[in-house]
């Protein structure tokens, strides 16, 4: 008797197996080879191994269910792009779904930069797009004129039709619910089950359990690209905030950039915490020679996009933000991450936030400002669990029996 749904009511039961078959995606090695030749960097050994495993699954007669696990900055997006190209080589559609608009737009821009020279168009779908643009994109996807698409939860809405869907990639898999991932899979043709590739640096316990019991295959990116240096993590009491501000000042004068993350947008009567708006005003006054930007979830999308673009262009040196930047923001010049009230964040959140720095060749640091009093284990937990990039790497037990598909 299967007691999983009754013991864990938030988990959706696995749908019964039916006659659904996966689309066959042969590896023609044309577009994928062209992409590899034009990339300004060489793949790591881990990336090559992961893509080899994924490519083999895509040619299989069983629908792929694979987790691509790798630390932030390890190159998961590049591996996903190669897998999506394998679908395009076969005249089939592939989509990449991300949990936030900032991350989804970044993926769209990166894939467009990589694939436009190959003559491959990428569609962009999000809830904030204008109605006319959205309808035009939906029509092109429904007609099969565009084979690759990137979007947010908008991809799983009813009006979206993907008749040629063969591969669905879910980035930051831990940020989506079970039914949301299933809804994306249901976008495929009747009688077909698209291949599923999920990506995460911090898999949730349910995902790890699925990999352990052979319900999910795992590819691990256990190498960082050449030139990356380890991120130094420091715990600092809140009374030393002035020292942290001086360090931000010194880093920015050397040409680097910094993040300053806060748990709240504005003041709360219930919680006496430093807010993003308060920190923005404080840093603007303390660092008048630097340009300070502010990003949070209540801003309009145009404002967020403009501020992020200015930060990427180094027109903004310090970005004050909430956890809206937790996933996907990629600015190689940013070398310093400051997190206010670090005791208010979960370990996975701290790990993801720290991953916004250390993406270039510069030495990077993550400063965790915490307020007293803390429990005896409080100060030690983040330092112990964040001291290595490989904390979350999980090598599953390999089942002696093939899993049912």
Give a structural overview.
This protein is of the alpha/beta class and 405 residues long. The protein has 2 domains: 204 residues, P-loop containing nucleotide triphosphate hydrolases (Rossmann fold, 3-Layer(aba) Sandwich); 155 residues, 3-Layer(aba) Sandwich (Rossmann fold). It contains 13 helices and 13 strands. The strands form 2 sheets. The chain has a 7-stranded parallel β-sheet, sandwiched between helices. The chain has a 6-stranded parallel β-sheet with strand order 8-13-12-9-11-10, with helices on both faces. Helix 7 links the parallel strand 5 and strand 6. Helix 3 runs parallel beside helix 4. The two termini are 19 Å apart. The N terminus and C terminus are likely disordered.
